[in-house]
Amino acid sequence: MDSIKQALVSLGEQPRVVSAMSYASALLETALQKTQTSEFQTACTVTAVGALLLAVALRRTPRSRKRGSRKQRGGQSCAQGAALKSRPKLSLKEQIDAVYAKYMDEYKTGLHQLLENYDPAREKDQYQRKYYNEMLLKLLIELDGVDLVDLPAEEKAALKEKRKQTIKEIQSELKKLDALKA
């Protein structure tokens, strides 16, 4: 009993446990008086009180809680989610046209300038090569997402050919970019 009190007194010097020390001491004395019938019960009581003291000493202050993690919200901010919901659904032809237009408007001119003036020693050129490679791959992935399975045969053939031509053009640009690596 004296060694336990000494341990509690030594723990009492730590600021987190001062208030809990007197409470734990009272609990320990009461528990020991009730369980003097066996040493096993005493050991269990001392272990339980020690665990209580440890839990009190290691307890952290509660942090402010957020409304939900990004994962729970679907990985999007509120503004992004609203923008996605308000976007009208495009037809399959419009999806293919949108990818091709994005390629033509955003990437083709810059890509051709890079291909003409590429210097492997320039870090900026290496960065641009990697950037255009990633962006063209993203466009290919978008085209892969265009599902032509449930269409009538004539419409399916026309869209399939349009998608195939767009993919071939983007792949030829990717091959030119890959040739710059060597």
UniProtKB/TrEMBL annotation:
Molecular functions per Gene Ontology: protein-folding chaperone binding
Pfam families attached to this UniProt entry: BAG
Domain of life where this protein originates: Eukaryota
Gene3D superfamilies: BAG domain
Transmembrane domains' residue ranges: none
Residue ranges of domain BAG in the record: 95-181
Protein name: LAMI_0B04720g1_1
Lineage: Eukaryota, Fungi, Dikarya, Ascomycota, Saccharomycotina
